[in-house]
Amino acid sequence: MAGLSAFPTWLRVNAEKYLLITAQRRVAKANDLAAPLPALDAKGKFFTKVFAPIYRILPWSLRSKVLQLMPGSHRQQWSPRERKPNGPAV
Amino acid sequence: MAVRTVVVGGGAAGIGAAGAFKGANPGGEVIVYTEFEDAAYSPCGIPYVHGKEIIDFQSLFLATKEQYANQGIDIHYETTVTGLDFANRRIRVEGEGEVAYDRLIVATGFNYADPGVPGGDLEGLYYVKNIRQAMEWDKTLDNTKVAVIIEATPLGMEMIEAMIHRGIEVHVVDTRPWAMSDLADPDIVEPVQKTWTEAGVHMHYGVKLEGFVGEGKIRAVKTSEGEIPCDLAVICTKKVPNNELGARAGLKTGPTGGIIVNKRMETNIAGVYAAGDVAEIPLGVTNVGVQGLTGSHAYSQGKVAGINAGGGHREYQPVYIPWGMVAGKWMIGGVNFGETAATALGIPFVMGVAQGISRARYFPGMKPIKVKLLAEPKSLRLIGAQMVGGEGIKERADFLAMAVKTGITLEDLAYMENVYSPPIGALNEPIALAAQNGLSKVKR
Predict the structure, then answer these.
(1) pTM, full prediction
(2) Interface confidence: ipTM more than 0.90
(3) Hey, which end of chain A has fewer CB within 10 Å, N or C?
């Protein structure tokens, strides 16, 4: 699999999964709902007990910088069209 | 000499690409390869045929095979592409040998994530994708008494509705705590789940799938809370990019597994494009890649790839993902993410929530609408939204996606103008009410 970015993919898939689980647990508790299943395997424990708490205490600006450094389409050339009206259109 | 573009994949992205290529380059040659018996139908419509809301599968086709042929789109059905050779600009096709191309568009779509449990080879496990198979499964549904939906994803929700309409006893099994919990907040889904309860749906949340049980054919779904006897299981797991063909040949993939593309849908190989569920696109709000979007995203990406392959110039843009669906007696929808996903990502936000109405309060058919808006705390720029209501959700989701894209703030929305006409709009627009609520939480 020459084209696969193995580690970033592994990190993204697991970070996404377990960060969502921890957020769902928090929101479920606030809404008096059943919590998602606890992660029982080593990987799940690492991501929920170690990764998620560390991720959570880092400021968004730092997290965002790290995310931008990951490979992916976001590092290609894109032209977001952000524009504000500047006076009457005609 | 005519430019030859080869498209691998006959779904929304592939057919969009082929048509757009012919539009940009009428003298060019375009060949589409698909493993399936058909191309360009609406797989999103399959649950509604199962639910008898759409009369037949034929309605889901966009055009006939003859119409594509008349447009100069040469579609090779039931044909497998086994390899891509970028150095020599050729592809390997089962039964055809090597086929040369000038431009190549990879639109190989998605696969459902493997549930990864024993019994995955039993009969009676339904993956909703191929329309011909759906036609056969539809006959099976006539004799199905109990169905289990594996994961309450958007497709899972549509299939729950289909089973309800079909009079089939339906169970849903999901490790997560509520339906669509990766995308939707619990208060948005709660009214939907209430209607499901009324309809007799058995919801097994926080429950792990452990296997499929049976002798040749499924007899039960095994879960962490015991076995659920059933005739059928519908696998509605997450969509993962079908990137194997492209990645094996050297196309770079991003962290989502989707093929890395730029605004022209170009990959890391010159003359090779990717589009649809196999591609990774940046989310506008965070500039982080996402994958597995909607059919409209796939079609648009295909058109961009096709036009550029045909010598034209078209740019795709980062996405903001308006979404919406009918669920139970409600419509739900939103833009980007809600409270749960923003919390997961650790994105700071201020939230405004309001309960409004869809028409004048005295007008027959008036329905409630709940709107949640998420904004960046400093600039108050809108970054996400979630809604549940009786009507008017799709239009608001589309509008709010443009609002996020163009940098609209809670202040802009709080004092927005709105249509007031008793049969179609209330005096107070629910979006404006939610924005006002959000502003009231911010001391400026």
Answers:
(1) 0.93
(2) no
(3) C
